[in-house]
Amino acid sequence: MQNVTDSFVSLGHWPSAGSFGVNTDILATNLINLSVVLGVLIFFGKGVLSDLLDNRKQKILNTIRNSEELREGAIEQLEKARARLSKVEMEADQFRVNGYSEIEREKLNLINSTYKTLEQLENYKNETINFEQQRAINQVRQRVFQQALQRALGTLNSCLNNELHLRTISANIGMFGAMKKVTD
Asked: What residues form the membrane-spanning segments (predicted)?
């Protein structure tokens, strides 16, 4: 502190007549320069600094206001989204319930139609088996009849002579003629 006061005191001892000297006391000269610069800055820069601070304050307030508006808009959108989500969830539950009901209904319809189809196939199978049995029985009857007829003809041919054979044919022709007259 002694140096500071000395520097102010020494200002009064400077000779005014053209001698120029360099003050080598760094602390004293820096303080003087600093106080002069600060004084000039405060005097001239007060208005500029206050304008800069006011502008910055306005920007911050506008940013806060905009942020509040955006936050309110986001809250509204969030509420709308939540309402839509609950509505969609309810619809999804409804679709799920309806879907399960529809699936059960389709399953029962499919089971019923499968049973009907199986029943029809069983009936067709039984009809086919009966038809084939009747056809086989008819074929066996025809063969038995043909074989019996061939044996009877063979027996008749071997037992009958020509004269007896002709009389039998004539008698049969007569019977057929009488039958024809009755049917006409």
From this structure: 26-49
Cβ proximity of 153 and 168 under 8 Å: no
CA distance 137 to 135: 5
Give CA–CA dist 88/84, Å, rounded: 6
Determine which helix (DSSP H) or strand (DSSP E) holds 66, and give its type and residue range: helix 26-159
What CA–CA distances, in Å, run from 151 to 32, 144, 145, 155, 158?
160, 10, 10, 6, 10
pLDDT, tens digit (0-9, with 9 covering 90-100), for 139-169: 999 999 899 888 888 876 777 677 777 888 8
Burial of 10 (0-12, 13-18, 19+ CB in 10 A): middle
Q: Beta-carbon neighbour count of residue 129 at 10 Å?
A: 10
Q: Ramachandran region of residue 22, left (φ > 0), alpha (ψ -120 to 50) or beta?
A: beta
pTM: 0.36
Q: Under DSSP, is residue 2 helix (H, G, I), strand (E, B) or coil?
A: helix
Angle at 18 between CA 14 and CA 23, to 5 degrees: 45
Could you give the CA distance from residue 148 to residue 135 in angstroms, rounded to a whole number? 20
Query: Both tokens of residue 86?
Result: 């609950």
Q: Which residues contact 105 (CB under 8 A, 6 or more apart)?
A: none
* Residue 1, amino acid: M
